[in-house]
Amino acid sequence: MPSVPNGSIYASGKWEIDLIRRELRAGGKHVPIGGRAFEIIAVLVLSAGQLVTKDELIERVWEGLVVEENALQVHISAIRKSFGADRELLQTVSRRGYRLLGTWTARDAARSVEASIDLDTEHPSLRSLGSNLAAPTSSLVGRESAVKQLQELVSTNRTVTLTGTGGIGKTSLALEVARSLLPSFDGGGWFVELNALSDPSLVPSAVARILGLSPGGDVVSPASIARAIGKMKLLLVVDNCEHLVEAIAVLVETILRICPKVSVLATSREVLRIEGEYVFRVPPLDVPNSDLVERDSIESHSAVQLFVARTAALNSDLSLNHDDFSTIAGICRRLDGIPLAIEFAAARAATLGLQEVRRRLDDRFSLLTSGRRTSFTRHRTLRATLDWSYELLPLEEQRLLRHLAVFAGGFTIEAANAISGLSKEEIVDTADRLANLVGKSLVTLESSVTEGRWRLLETIRAYAFERLSEYGEADQAMRNHARYFERLVSLATRPSVSKPLRSDLDRLGTEIHNVSTALDWSFSESGDSTIGVSLTASYTAVWLHFALMVECRDRVRRAIEFSSELTSFARLQMLVALGGALIFTMAPVGEIKTVLAESLKLAEELDDLDALLRTLWSVWALHFNIGECLVAKGATERFARAARRTKDKATLSVADRLLANTLQYSGEQGEARHLLDRVLESYVAPNNQHHIAQFHYDQRVLARTMLGRTLWMQGHVAAAKKLVQQSFTEARTGHQMSLLYPRDTIQPSGRCWVAVSKQNCL
């Protein structure tokens, strides 16, 4: 096979291929063509019209990679398109390979020497640089907004770094942006692919080779490359920088300092941290919320669109119904909207079906392995993608990332220190290490909260927990995690603080997923049920505050199974919460009465006034709800006696409101109205709003709503409607559970209605 070192080849004076500058020209006019396509042409030209088999082409152009034949066909098609009217120059030999027709001649040595580039001087011939940006092989889904934003950023910032976790789509996005901006750079756009490079000292040589710069016998340096580029206006796309970040930072900073018209678009899981760098964090694709049920709403999200598009491409018979879209939405949420993971899942769905993919997502690293054969090794499986990032971390950061996997719902630095198992001297660097993990796109700062709080994407968390288990650290880390949250919650709800502030309950509510994880571990075979019982008892106030009655019921039932480990106070806490939860979840009346009877007995024995009041409220609610208004009235009288002991006006108002409600449903509207007027006139909300935590509702909202009902039944329609509307507005902007009363009292049309049953109430 002929070779043309340092030179050019041309055919019949029309077509010319410059092997140094890696460009194709026809009649002096530059013909744009991708890097792989160029290499295919070079191999065919140097074969001097001889047949080159498909296998030979793939081996020469994709050396060391496993590539399917259709990848070659895509580039052959692009070459024919670039040849235009001369497309027949590229001949296909059926089932064998390709040859390039025509007489191709090497230029003389003098011309070849002139074409070489001296890296130590500016060279005006760089003006003829083209581009090696590959043509897109598939559409970029869900990135329209990001593309537009990046186009503006590259136009106003000379260095833009796309960062984000592995598989988030940084490279695809960078290439799309670069292709769209190519007309703005007369020096071309150049894609520098550094995946296979491991030696930082070879970075300058790799860049020089891709730009077509010939180093001659000199050592290639960032400065020599920059001087060669000179005043050319070109776009440099540097891909996959994280494993060579320091060397690339030096190179880019040098080029930007010396070359005034060069712009750099970099992709990296870690930012370059150079002067003038603008960091663009590539977001996940948009995933549907769990409460969406309509197909059109689900299908409008980009993560779902990508999943459907990739699945359909692999299964032309794909037919999706309404339930399928709900399943796809769930899969996309579990995969955090990460495009690479979604593509893996779509490939599996095309062969295994949607339900099987959803069922096996807990073992996602074994399931999601169907990457493209032409992909980089790190992108062929989901595990390989994360292995790449993990192995680049220092040992201390690896250890921290592993331990952060125990947090299911975010964490603070205090929490991270508590589960690390390190001494006080060892944990002083946690903040710095955490900041580094954020910078390397492995941990996410939650910007929606005011205090410092971080989280791991579910996919990264699953990977890190596997690593934690491999090191034999999982059990101790889970024990530390459970102990930390047991202490955190018990301090806020201990007996001396039996009426926690609403703000405390809101704060503890952010930890609900962590608490659930801690409880699951505590009551597992390897767990510690003592921790679980204490945590359950302390957290009941939070479940009730957020009206999570089913979860409260189930968690308390589980904890009570370990009754031998309960203190009297802890048992009382759980019985009080369980009684209320059973009422709201419409449990059997017999079970509710048994729980409330034990709760009353224990509250009186411990002289716990707060528990007594809450239990009496539940006793009233039970009998009121089943129509036993006379029994309910007796419960309100006991409640009133206990309320007077508190000397708290808000609690006394609750007693009046309960009695008024009972009288209203007993048909005594006049007395009910008198009591409700008194409640509203004397109502003063407690500073800590403990009446909501104690009795589940905003008492003023309920009193005003019930007064509206009474006025309606007495014929005062306008006044009744006004009161109920006020209650609805206040509840909607305040305590959500309190919406139940005004919402059930006023119809969407604005008409009031009251359903009163006197059965068993007389």
How would you portray this structure in words?
The structure is a single chain. This protein has 762 residues and is of the alpha/beta class. Among the domains are: 108 residues, Orthogonal Bundle (Arc Repressor Mutant, subunit A), CATH 1.10.10.10; 158 residues, Rossmann fold (3-Layer(aba) Sandwich), CATH 3.40.50; 89 residues; 80 residues, Winged helix-like DNA-binding domain superfamily/Winged helix DNA-binding domain (Arc Repressor Mutant, subunit A, Orthogonal Bundle), CATH 1.10.10. It has 35 helices and 15 strands. Strands 4-3-2-1-8 form a 5-stranded antiparallel β-sheet, with helices on both faces. Strands 10-11-12-9-13 form a 5-stranded parallel β-sheet, with helices on both faces. A hairpin with a 3-residue loop joins strand 6 and strand 7. Helix 11 crosses helix 13 and helix 28 runs antiparallel to helix 29. The longest helix has 20 residues. The chain is elongated. The chain starts with 7 loop residues before the first strand and ends in a 17-residue tail after the last helix. The N terminus and C terminus are likely disordered.
